[in-house]
Specification:
Layout lengths: L7 H51 L18 E5 L4 E4 L3 E5 L20 H9 L3 E3 L4 E9 L2 E14 L2 E10 L1 H53 L14 H50 L6 H25 L8 E3 H10 L8 E5 L3 E3 L2 H18 L4 E8 L2 E8 L33 H11 L3 E6 L5 E8 L1 H5 L1
Parallel strand pairs: 9-11
Antiparallel strand pairs: 1-2, 1-7, 3-5, 4-6, 5-6, 6-7, 8-10, 11-12, 12-14, 13-14
Helix pairs in contact: 1-3, 4-5, 5-8, 7-8
């Protein structure tokens, strides 16, 4: 059961059924209430009409016995004087409730008004005939007429005559109202479950059709997981709904994942290749030295060891950057920092000129030192006679530039050089060429610090690398 209602289709069907059920119950209650009210009002109107007919007769008849009371079984009538005595009633009335007067037969003294003399009769005829109250009073009750019992809507109409004040009670049968309400209720009890079954069935089918692409996506994702083939893609429906967007997002995620895995594989392959050369060279030198100590190239062995050490440090830093390591929050003055780093470089091939102006940034001094060192090493490899280092402030940004007077970087290759293990010259065949990780590390460090690193043409025609980092306040925000 829990598995059944754990599906979207079952929950959607249940939810739709509950909503429709609540709507049907509310609508059914409103219909029944309206039907009952209308039919009750109709019964009250019939009762009021009958009561007024009797009240009109009271204004003219000489005796209560002359009253023409309705003889229908569905209209009981009582006439009560102002003392609460029953003076007239329907002939076959056997029992009544709801009018306030339980009597069904007129009592003594209810045979009629007293006889008047001729003069009194003329005087009465000259007076006003009487008055019937315009506002009836309604109540519900029951009555038994000629053995037939039923519920009634009673109307009480007050009438003032020259003979006295009277109240006429007349009833309108509620049997039609009860029959209609009962029939409507029966229809609802039969029709509502059928309608709910139809709604549930249609919702189930529509939901299944709507979720069919999701099933296809799920099946394809399971197949991709089992096969580990990231080149496969989930089917995208020809709709423009949320499921289509889910499929497109899933394929975009698979593309990004495939790119990341391929990049990781290339990284491992390139790292293995870069490590193989110095390790093989170092092993060869050590084996030769072991067999012929006089032929051991100590300087070459040291150089290969340094290359291995630098490559291992670069790979470790890249791994930490890929893992999302955040830079420190310390403040670094680029001018003082660059001046100190330049003072430690004593073996540069080309002279370095500096134009250093104070500019503070927040970040890791060690990582920024790696960036500056990599940019300087790259400039030293390509410069003819001059390398220039500049630091300055540019609004909320701190800028560090390293320019050389070499051949520069072709415009179409200016983004590619920041990829890992990419070198545009023949440095891969030269020991001093590096592993092609320096610029990639510099770009990653810049991004981790919230900045940018780009390359463009220097005024001298060579390459100009511009590092832009946010100031301490911008970084804090």
């Amino acid at each position: 059961m829990s598995r059944l209602f754990g599906s979207v289709r079952a929950r959607a069907t249940l939810g739709a059924s509950l909503v429709v059920a609540l709507a049907l119950v509310a609508a059914g209650a409103a219909v029944l209430f309206s039907l009952r009210t209308n039919l009750t009002d109709q019964a009250g109107s019939r009762a009021d009409s009958a009561a007024r007919k009797v009240a009109s007769q009271l204004l003219t008849v000489r005796s209560f016995g002359d009253l023409d009371l309705p003889d229908d079984d569905d209209q009981p009538v009582q006439v009560v004087d102002d003392n609460g005595r029953l003076v007239a009633a329907t002939e076959d009335l056997q029992k009544i409730s709801g009018t306030g007067v339980d009597q069904v037969k007129p009592g003594r003294g209810g045979a009629g008004p007293k006889e008047d003399s001729g003069e009194e009769r003329e005087e009465r005829e000259d007076r006003e005939d009487g008055e019937i109250d315009d506002e009836p009073k309604y109540s519900n009750g029951s009555a038994t007429i000629d053995g037939e019992s039923g519920d009634y809507r009673f109307a009480a109409v007050d009438v003032s005559t020259s003979k006295g004040d009277f109240t006429v009670y007349a009833g309108g049968s509620l049997s039609s109202e009860q029959s209609a309400v009962s029939a409507a209720l029966t229809s609802m009890l039969i029709g509502f479950p059928l309608l709910l079954a139809v709604v549930a069935g249609v919702t189930w089918l529509v939901t299944r059709r709507a979720l069919r692409p999701v099933a296809a996506i799920t099946a394809e994702m399971s197949a991709i997981t089992a096969s580990e083939d990231l080149a496969r893609r989930v089917p995208e429906p020809d709709t423009h709904d949320e499921i289509a967007r889910l499929a497109r997002t899933t394929n975009e995620t698979l593309t990004a994942l495939q790119t990341s895995v391929e990049r990781q594989r290339r990284f491992v392959a390139d790292a293995s290749h870069e490590l193989r050369s110095p390790i093989a060279s170092l092993r060869t030198q050590l084996e030769v030295g072991a067999a012929h100590p006089e032929l051991l190239d100590v300087d070459g062995a040291v150089e290969d060891t340094v290359r291995l050490q630098e490559l291992a440090a670069d790979l470790l830093l890249l791994a930490r950057l890929d893992a999302g390591e955040k830079p420190g929050a310390g403040r670094v003055d680029l001018a003082a920092f660059a001046r100190e780093e330049l003072s430690q470089r004593t073996r540069d091939r080309v002279e370095v000129h500096a134009d250093l102006k104070s500019a503070e940034v927040a970040g890791s001094r060690g990582q920024l030192a790696r960036v500056l060192g990599n940019l300087l090493n790259n400039a030293q490899r390509h410069a003819r006679s001059r390398v220039t280092v500049t630091t300055r402030s540019d609004g909320a940004w701190a800028v560090l530039e390293v320019a050389d007077d070499g051949s520069g970087v072709p415009e179409g290759e200016r983004e590619r050089i920041f990829e890992r293990f990419v070198r545009l010259d023949d440095a891969r065949t030269r020991d001093e060429g590096g592993a092609g990780l320096g610029l990639a590390i510099a770009r990653d460090v810049a991004v981790r610090h919230g900045g940018t690193l780009v390359v463009r043409e220097a005024p001298s025609g060579g390459a100009l690398f511009e590092l832009r980092l946010p100031g301490p306040q911008s970084s804090a925000e």
